[in-house]
Specification:
Length: 356
């Protein structure tokens, strides 16, 4: 071995001279092709580069394949299980019978595991939400606009509305019902309710939009030192959303659901309170949870314009009405979009709700 090393060292000058000659021959060949020295150097560097690809060990590949197969089999098995339980009645009854005893401990265990998360993050709003994850593939087709095509003005009922279900429920015909038994709600009444039940209503305190950028919470509007004159001078317009069950019950003590709603009707767990100064800006009404909606004029006055939805503009025409205290406007959100305008010299208090 020592002899071979010695011979290699003795031949090293010859190898170097031979390599130099070969490189020079390559350069001469490149010049004969019309290449300059920079292009020749670039070609030599590319020729000497080694394409080194990261090598994945056989053990790692086998582990990844096993994990994929296990996950695939688990998902396939769970899909098959839930499909069988859903479609096969006997299997569903069998599973229900034998899992009834562990359902409560399982749910309680999940709840205990999530306690640290609920202590760190405020998740109360999720409990009140009807839908946590919207479905982007769900799309409601354009409505049939025939119910609103004959509407050229808003019907006003001075007497109780009759045959509401047959004539107006789920239809695009709006009307105004005057309810003399409905109590007036002024700014002071709303403030007194809030101050007396701050602990219940504080959860919804920040669920508002205001024309004044300095207003961050409903407490800034219904503060004990705030007066109705302050609202008028600042030209404030407020939209306050109520979604918590306890808060809903309190708001309904001021503005109950309209008398014409059927007894079997389901009222949405959501209401909006609007406080508008006489010179506040016009604004669009929000989309309600259910299509059948009502707007109560609790005090003051407000002009309301009902504009057909874009899909019904060719069939239906815009109509408007001035709501007076104790007026209730019924309309369908499937056909109309509301916009309100200032009217009169008093603060306007309105309540918006919906039902099915």
């Amino acid at each position: 071995m020592y002899t071979k090393i010695s011979m290699a060292l003795d031949n090293e000058p010859d190898l170097y001279d031979s390599l130099t000659n070969q490189v020079q021959n390559v350069r001469d060949l490149g010049r004969s092709w019309g290449l300059d020295d920079d292009q020749i150097d670039e070609c030599v560097q590319k020729a000497l580069m080694v394409d080194e690809k990261p090598k994945i060990s056989r053990r790692l590949r086998r582990g990844c394949l096993c994990c994929f197969l296990v996950l695939f089999c688990f998902m396939g098995g769970m899909s098959l299980f839930f499909t069988t339980v859903t479609l096969h009645k006997a299997t569903r009854l069998f599973v229900t019978k034998h899992t009834q005893s562990i359902a409560y401990p399982l749910m309680r265990g999940i709840r205990l595991l999530t306690l640290p998360i609920s202590r760190t993050f405020d998740l109360r709003g999720w409990h009140e939400m009807e839908c946590l994850v919207p479905n982007p593939l769900s799309a409601v087709g354009p409505p049939d606009c025939y119910p609103c095509q004959d509407v050229h003005n808003i019907i006003i009922f001075n007497e109780p509305v009759r045959k509401f279900t047959e004539r107006y429920y789920n239809f695009g015909v709006p009307f105004v019902a005057k309810d003399p038994d409905r109590k007036l709600v002024h700014f002071e009444d709303l403030k007194d309710l809030y101050l007396a039940n701050t602990a219940t209503l504080e959860y919804n305190a920040k669920s508002l939009e205001c024309t004044n950028s300095y207003v961050d919470s409903i407490d800034d509007i219904l503060h004990k030192d705030r007066t109705s004159q302050d609202i008028i001078e600042a030209n404030i317009g407020v939209k306050w959303r109520i979604i918590k069950a306890g808060s809903m019950r309190l708001i309904r003590t001021l503005s109950a659901k309209p008398y014409f709603i059927p007894h079997k009707g389901e009222v949405a767990a959501e209401m909006f309170v609007f406080i508008d100064a006489p010179a506040s800006e016009a604004h669009l009404m929000p989309e309600t949870y259910f299509g059948n909606s009502w707007l109560t004029q609790a005090s003051g006055s407000r002009e309301v314009t009902l504009t057909p939805l874009p899909s019904c503009l060719q069939n239906c025409t815009e109509v408007s009405v001035v709501l007076q205290p104790k007026d209730i406007l019924f309309y369908s959100g499937f056909f109309w979009q509301l916009k309100t305008f200032p009217f009169g010299d008093d603060i306007s208090i309105q309540f918006l709700g919906s039902f099915f």
